[in-house]
């Protein structure tokens, strides 16, 4: 029941058990999303205004997309993913119609989560935008957010790492008036993520995830995933130096593979500011 407006094949289902180091975020999101979608009467009886839109704010690779997908899966609700730059790029000129039809589809498939990735590219601050089409897309999104009554079983989650670039009208009450922060994980968060990512990897007894978590300072979930994959490739190269040879079924990944991988994979926050020497 998950559909994505993207050229890539749909990602496999995932649950919140795959999300590490974000327990506060998950608690907050569950309250914001689960109650209105699954138990709307509870909110009504307390006279509470349910969220229609929630902004997921945080650096790339901290698990915003993973969390949105997993939340939909765990709650058993439908999921429609919209990638901001693709709507603008691929459907330029038709972007407004495309958005309208996706919101319509969400209403028909309620209860449903709409996930808008990179919303800053879809709804940039209009005072900094030249193009008429771009301005109209922002206006369309605002009117779509206003157009569905709260409690009709649709919630929009939207991710950004540049909240200051968003059109301010987007954050008015009844639109994206709730915000959840995805932070770069601390040491315990990194450890939790590493445990999840290595669950199905054949780790040798030498591997100390606590030590790797200590050393992986500044890494976000996506970096840790790259680190684990690198360690696995190094283990492969070490044990199967020649790919023509028959592969043993007892391949393992050891601590040295991880230590070597740590030398090669750098935190993405650092990569983006690296200068050539
Ligand atoms: P972007 O802003 O670049 O879209 P994002 O915050 O949406 O990034 P994801 O796309 O969810 O990040 O993360 C990429 C991958 O990194 C995930 O599919 C997952 O494998 C891993 N990952 C990221 N964060 C976490 C986390 N908190 N727990 C477990 N895995 C994570």
TrEMBL record:
One of its GO terms (molecular function) is ATP hydrolysis activity. Residues 50-186 form the AAA+ ATPase domain. It comes from the Bacteria. Keywords: ATP-binding, Nucleotide-binding, Repeat. The keyword Nucleotide-binding applies. Belongs to the AAA ATPase family. This is AAA family ATPase.
């Amino acid at each position: 029941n998950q559909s994505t407006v993207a050229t890539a094949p749909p990602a496999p289902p995932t649950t919140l058990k795959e999300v590490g180091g974000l327990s506060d975020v998950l608690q907050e999101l569950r309250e914001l999303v689960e109650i209105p979608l699954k138990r709307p009467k509870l909110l009504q009886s307390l006279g509470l205004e349910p969220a229609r839109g929630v902004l997921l704010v945080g650096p790339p690779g901290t698990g915003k997309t993973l969390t949105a997908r997993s939340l939909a899966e765990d709650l058993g609700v439908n999921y429609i993913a919209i990638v901001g730059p693709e709507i603008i790029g691929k459907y330029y000129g038709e972007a407004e119609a495309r958005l309208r039809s996706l919101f319509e589809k969400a209403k028909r498939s309620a209860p449903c989560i709409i996930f808008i990735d990179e919303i800053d590219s879809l709804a940039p601050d209009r005072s900094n935008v030249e193009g008429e089409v771009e301005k109209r897309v922002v206006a369309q999104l605002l009117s779509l957010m206003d157009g569905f009554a709260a409690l009709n079983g649709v919630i929009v989650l939207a991710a950004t790492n540049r909240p200051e670039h968003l059109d301010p009208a987007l954050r008015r009450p009844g639109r994206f008036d709730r915000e959840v922060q995805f932070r770069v994980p601390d040491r315990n968060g990194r450890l939790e993520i590493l445990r999840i990512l290595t669950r199905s990897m054949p780790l040798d007894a030498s591997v100390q995830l606590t030590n790797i978590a200590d050393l992986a300072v500044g890494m976000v979930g996506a970096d840790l995933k790259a680190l684990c994959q690198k360690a696995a490739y190094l283990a492969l190269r070490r044990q199967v130096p020649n790919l023509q040879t028959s592969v043993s079924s007892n391949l393992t990944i050891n601590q040295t593979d991880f230590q070597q991988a740590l030398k090669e994979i750098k935190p993405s926050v650092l990569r983006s500011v690296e200068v050539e020497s």
